[in-house]
Specification:
By secondary structure, the chain is mostly helical. The protein is built from nine helices and four strands, in the order ααββααααααββα.
């Protein structure tokens, strides 16, 4: 190739300007055959810890969350009287879930690539269940559902105190615990639909592009919005019931005080 031809090619294919380099980036996601493909940045496809701030946040969460929840578990389980209360079992379950969430978030900072996998099964498990953050969000969903169960049990105890009994709570406790864990892991199951490509984990790689938004909305509604509104309704109704009960007690007290004063006045006249 002559010098003139080389210069001609350079002018035909000019280099991008500095401004275009600053404003134009490789897209993080594209679609191939209707499947969402994640083109990750320098941190690597499927990585979870993407900044120093995120690492500090999750390490801090683990340092405070793990000891606090372990202490709660030890206190309840070390007391025979506290273990006999069915409601305390739900609190222990909540502490276990929160402790697992904290532990998982810390481990995800250090196990955030496919380099630790040496077999196809390990790569499959690591990508679909770990790097996809399925385990983390499943445990988080279980924690939300367990908090909802605690709120509903409190609500039922205040709403119908004569119907609620320790025996009835204990009889339905296994079903509550099973539902909490099962529904939590089932609600975020679409997170497992990742794909291993060239020893990299493509998050949502097996999800059709048209289903990404519905899956995201479903995850938000089922694991966050629905439990939050359920707990909000429960506590608002409990507040109303307690206020009505307090007003009823005040009315009965004032009525009894009036009757007592009338009786004393009648005795004085006699």
């Amino acid at each position: 190739m002559t010098l003139s031809e080389s210069m001609s090619n350079e002018f035909d294919n000019p280099l991008p300007s500095t401004s275009s380099l600053l404003t134009t980036e490789i897209p993080n996601q594209t679609t191939e055959d209707g499947v969402l493909v994640d083109l990750e940045n320098d941190f690597g496809i499927g990585t979870f810890s993407r900044s120093y701030t995120l690492k500090v946040s999750y390490v801090t969460l683990g340092l405070f969350g793990i000891p606090g929840n372990l202490f709660t578990i030890m206190v309840i389980l070390s007391s025979s009287k506290m273990r006999q209360k069915s409601f305390n079992i739900l609190i222990v379950n909540q502490s276990i879930l929160d402790c697992l969430v904290c532990t998982t978030s810390v481990l995800l900072i250090y196990i955030d690539s496919m380099d630790v996998a040496f077999s196809d099964f390990q790569r499959y498990f690591l990508c679909h269940f770990w790097l996809s953050t399925y385990v983390l969000w499943a445990l988080t969903a279980c924690s939300s559902y367990n908090l909802t169960a605690i709120s509903l049990e409190r609500h039922h105890a205040i709403w119908k105190p004569f119907v609620q009994s320790e025996g009835k709570v204990r009889s339905r406790l296994p079903l509550i615990l099973f539902s909490v864990w099962f529904c939590g892991f089932a609600a975020v199951f679409p997170d497992t639909m990742s794909k291993v490509s060239e020893n990299e984990c493509v998050i949502y790689g097996s999800v059709p592009a048209t289903l990404v938004v519905p899956f995201t909305v479903w995850s938000m509604v089922s694991t966050s919005i629905f439990p939050a509104f359920t707990m909000l309704f429960s506590y608002i109704h409990m507040g109303i019931l307690l206020r009505e009960g307090s007003l009823s007690v005040q009315r009965e007290t004032s009525t009894n005080a009036g009757i007592l004063s009338q009786v004393k006045h009648y005795d004085v006249k006699q």
